[in-house]
Every structure is written in C-alpha cells, then in structure tokens.
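Researcher: Structure for this, please.
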Amino acid sequence: METRANYVLIGSFTLAVIAAAIGFVLWFQSLHTTKQRSPLRVVFEGPAAGLRNGGSVNFNGIRVGEVVSVKLDNPRRVVALAMVENNAPIRKDTLVGLEFQGLTGVAAISLKGGEEAAPPPPLDEDGIPTLMADPNKLQDVTEAIRGTLQNINKIVADNQESVKNSLKNLETFTNSLARNSEKIDGVMAKVDGVMLKADSLMLGLNSLAGGKDGGELFLTVKSIRELAEDFDKRSGALMTDGRRTLGDISRAVNNFDRNPTRVLFGASNSAPAAAAPQPAEAPKPAPAASGRRQ
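Model: Predicted structure, token format:
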C-alpha cells in the first residue's frame, strides 16, 4: 500500500509540473504576442460595408494586423479597433480605406503611404492611436463596385435576346441529342470498331517492323539492300570488262589505219613471199636473145 501511495504521489506531481509548464508557455506566448502588437483605432465617416471582426489590416497589401471590434459611434460613424504590429510604419498621414477580395469578399482595412519623417498617429482620449478614413476613397470603392455591377447588368440587359437564343439553341441541341441517343451510340460503336481495326493494323505493322529477328519488313529491306550491293559489284566488273574490250577495239582500229596489210595478211613470212614474183617479171628482154638464135 505504501508503495502504491508513492507511485500516486509521484504521478500527481509529474502531471502538475507538466500542466504548469504548458500554462507558462501559453502565458509567455500571449505576453510576447501582446507586446508585438498595439491597438489602432480607425474611424469611418460613413458606411464600412463588409468590415467585420477578424478582418485583415493590410499595409500596402501586406497583412499587419486584424480587426478585433467594429461598432457604431453614431448613425454616420463607424469605429473599428484593430491590433497592428508594432513594426508597421504607420504615420499620421497614412491613408486609410477599405479593400475587398472580389465583389463578395470580406472587407479589409487598407493602410497606404505616409512620409517616413511624419509623426505617428495622434492618440485618442484613452491613449489609443487613431486614424480617420478617407471618405473620398471609401466613396471611390463604393462607386467602383456599383459601376461594376451596373456594367454587368447593362451587358446582360443589352444581350438579353442573344442570351435567350443561346439558351434555346442549347436546349434544342440537348433535346436532339436525347432523341438521337441510339444513333449516337451506334456511331460510337462504329468508331470503337474502327479504333480496334486501327489497333490491329498497328500491331501488324509493329510485327513487320520490329518482330522477332528484326521483323519481316526489316528482313525484306535487308535483302533488297544486299541485292543492290551485289548488283553494284557486278555492274562495276561489267563496266571494267567493257572498258577493256573498247580499248582492244580502239587499238585494232589504230593498227588497221597504220598497216592494213598487216591486219589482213598477218605479220608472218608469207608477206615477202607474196611480193617475190615482182622481180621475176623484170627480165622481159629475153625474146631478143631468142631471135639471135634463129
């Protein structure tokens, strides 16, 4: 029993220490956050449509705080209290207005500009810095929203017939699709069939071009290339033989021009023998000698 009591005491003490540590961290964080931010009061002389608790406070488009309360000071005056970071360069001449995230977005307090050497915002009776919103800027924002809405309304009004006709055409088209749904299904089925045939064709081409051992198309191209190379070699040899034959014919023609008898009778000893009878006919004066015998 005493051991169990010790365990309970130790556990309770441990839980108390953990709770105290968590509470200290939360307190220190809240204190640190409070020290980093200071209150800022913004007074709107007119409506502040869209401004609510939790809205952003932006300086030159950068979030520097948030709105913590919005209330009416009188029928024409809206007072907003915000917590703003201490390092935000807010000056007395800083311009205050509202900015919106789209046409239906929540409004945010907009802070812009101000001279660096200008003094800080004046303090109110309770010591809180206070800035007055520029009514012209608020009016400009409101007028811009109204102008945008009016332009949209005008565009819709001017094109009312076109919009109506477009809607009618869309309705007609959808009705036509509904009536011809079976035909459309048939067309889609035919398209599916064509796609299947195309897939089969592509598979066939793939088998021709890249099947086993390179595919039939590859082997056919390879055979044609080998045949072309063999024909090229044979034609080269034939051209060489033709040139050699033409050379022999050319030499024969040249020899015939220089010595026709050599070509006709050859280069053997028969040529002189054929010429030998010419000197035998030279002694024609022989008849005179025979006359003296008589």
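Researcher: Any notable elements?
Model: Strands lie at 37-44, 56-59, 62-74, 77-85, 95-100, 107-112, 130-132. Residues 35-147 form one domain.
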